[in-house]
Amino acid sequence: MNILFITSNRVGDAVLSTGLLAWLERRYPEARFTIACGPYAGDLFRAVPRLDSLIILRKQSWNRHWLKLWQACFHREWDLIVDLRNSLVSRLLRAKNKRYIRRLSDRHKVVENATALNLRPPPNPRLWLDHRARHAAAETLPAPRPLLAIGPAANWPAKQWPIESFLLLTQKLTAPHGPLPGAKVMMIADSHESDQLISLRNAIPADQRIEIIGRDLLTVAACLKEARLFIGNDSGLMHIAAAMGTPTLGLFGPGNENIYGPWGDQTAFVRTDESREDLLKQLPHRGVHPPNLMTSLSVEKVLAAAAALLVRTTDQTVNKIAE
Q: Which of 63, 115, 218, 238 has its CA 20 to 30 A from that of 170?
């Protein structure tokens, strides 16, 4: 059985689609998978069981990346195509069955994705690790733990919680009488975001910090799996942490937590005092550098939410370690 799975260019959306892929992998144990996704998300799928091919769609002018997908797939008759992009290309391919999502403007992306296969409840996102990722994480992470993972960078400055707030938060969380006394601080960012972490790097002692900078996303996922808690901006990194079963606290302001909040029973979010709508009204005209819209989210509010999440997930984390 041959299944073509077409998912997102964006890392966060691609992660949120993996629950559907995991359901297919369990439902059809004989199936072989071909996965089409964007270049940034590609590493996340390299360990999918029974993966025949990973097609990387690098955006090209005149939508030529879709032509590349058609050229790679037209010679085969597929048993099932699941197209979460609702693309024209999949409609031009031969398949016994084709499934598409129904756009739901007010529902979480995980719920929207599940409409492709009419699954209720929607399956939780999950990621598969390979030996390479596990080995890299084992070499990178020190013992003993616990580990506090933070994602202080963001692809849009308007939704980046101030670095100074991250620093104060980590100090309070890891203080002797804090919720995670003595925890190592794992700072995660892409290579081009490294400069955003300079003040954190200078303020957190070298023997307390771990820098995961510019690593492939599956290695990042393996590292996040070992963390006791992840706190980060609304980003793909947040969704990776949640998919790994790590207690995950997402920080929201101009983003929409109802659609892109972290998914799973070990997750929570906290947002600015202003609503998303009020914050978006503050954005300047296009072409003008946007202001930071996360400044009203206080350290105390995030600290309280983090402490509550740690208490709520204590039993689950113990069971996870035991497994």
A: 218
Report helix angle 299-312 to 163-174, nearest 10. 50
> What is the SS3 string spanning the chain?
CEEEEECCCCHHHHHHCHHHHHHHHHHCCCCEEEEEECCCCHHHHCCCCCEEEEEECCCCHHHHHHHHHHHHHCCCCECEEEECCCCHHHHCCCECCEEECCCCCCCCHHHHHHCCCCCCCCCCCCCCCCHHHHHHHHHHCCCCCCEEEEECCCCCHHHCCCHHHHHHHHHHHHCCCCCCCCCEEEEEECHHHHHHHHHHHHHCCCCCEEEEECCCHHHHHHHHHCCCEEEEECCHHHHHHHHCCCCEEEEECCCCHHHHCCCCCCEEEEECCCCHHHHHCCCCCCCCCCCCCCCCCCHHHHHHHHHHHHHHCHHHHHHHHHC
- Tell me the CATH class for 133-322: alpha beta
Return the domain boundaries, the chain: 2-114, 133-322
CA distances from 287 to 85, 157, 280 (A): 29, 14, 15
Q: CB neighbours of 163 closer than 8 A, spacing ≥ 6?
A: 152, 196, 197, 199, 200
Residue 120 burial (10 A CB sphere; 0-12, 13-18, 19+) = exposed
How many Å apart are CA 272 and CA 302, to the nearest integer?
10
Minimal CA–CA distance to 303: which of 205, 188, 169, 207? 169
Q: What kind of fold does domain 2-114 have according to CATH? A: Rossmann fold (3.40.50)
Give residue-wise pLDDT tens across range 197-239: 899 999 999 999 999 999 999 999 999 999 999 999 999 999 9
Tokens of 4: 């073509």
pLDDT for 290-315, tens place per residue?
889 999 999 999 999 999 999 999 86
